[in-house]
Design a protein that fits this description.
The protein is α+β, with helices and mostly antiparallel strands. About 30% of the residues lie in helices and about 25% in strands. Strand 1 and strand 2 form a beta hairpin.
Length: about 240
């Protein structure tokens, strides 16, 4: 595309016109005001100042559910009955929503803190434990008090979250996903916010994630007080092989 060309997608305008519209090699969002679901003409690329590399925000990809299902089968093969539920969460689980191309997976086990019951099997299956909450050292930015483990994958870019059965985070993530799937106005709001934030400079991806907290809380509150929100699970679904 010639330099100076401006690309638009239903109100999202992305330009590569000179230094005023480009910084550190990444595209900036100039204006956003669109319903989600159309094609992004180009990824919005967020650069991390800490050397962590760029993070693209791309249009929804129909392959994401298939990638999740492949990983779900791998987790079932590794854990068997220890895996009480395996669900696709995060932006890649919401059809039509632009997202970082990273598959977020929510795994429920009986007791997240009982690592010998599942961590060795996940590691043998190619998953790598990266984050442990509570951390216990006081030095980690991941200082949650609810038991939580985070793994990375070996074959695709993914984040595997592990929570204990009954954790409030399970219903929280499920409700947010289901609300966005069925409420286009909040889907548009969330996508617009993500694209606007991704156009800014961040020291690392966690700063970007933290900046989304306000809009996420607004949407969570709407979902929590709505009659059609996904009800809390009365039982955990055991995944089929």
């Amino acid at each position: 595309m010639p330099r100076g060309d401006v690309r638009s997608r239903q109100g999202l305008c992305v330009s590569d016109q000179g230094a005023d519209h480009e910084r550190d090699g990444r595209l900036r969002v100039l204006a956003v005001g669109a319903e989600p679901g159309g094609d992004l003409p180009h990824p919005v690329v967020m650069q991390q100042a800490d050397g962590g590399g760029s993070i693209p925000i791309v249009a929804y990809d129909d392959s994401w559910p298939r990638l999740f299902d492949r990983e779900r089968q791998r987790i079932v093969a590794a854990l068997g009955d220890c895996a009480l539920a395996i669900e696709h969460i995060g932006s890649t689980s919401v059809p039509g929503l632009a997202a970082k191309p990273i598959i977020d997976i929510m795994l429920t086990v009986a007791d997240c803190a009982d690592e010998p019951a599942y961590v060795p099997d996940l590691e043998a299956g190619g998953y790598v434990l990266r984050i442990r909450e509570p951390d216990g050292t006081g030095d980690s930015p991941f200082d949650g008090t609810i038991p939580h483990r985070v793994f990375k994958g070996s074959e695709i870019d993914l984040i595997l979250h592990v929570w204990s059965s009954g954790s409030p985070e399970i219903d929280r993530h499920r409700a947010f996903r289901d609300w966005l799937r069925s409420h286009s106005t909040d889907l548009a709001l969330y996508e617009r916010t993500k694209l606007e934030l991704a156009a800014r400079a961040w020291e690392n991806v966690q700063q970007y994630a933290d900046a989304k907290a306000t809009v996420i809380e607004v949407i969570h509150n709407r979902a929590a007080h709505a009659e059609d929100v996904h009800p809390p699970a009365s039982g955990i679904r055991r995944p089929s092989p």
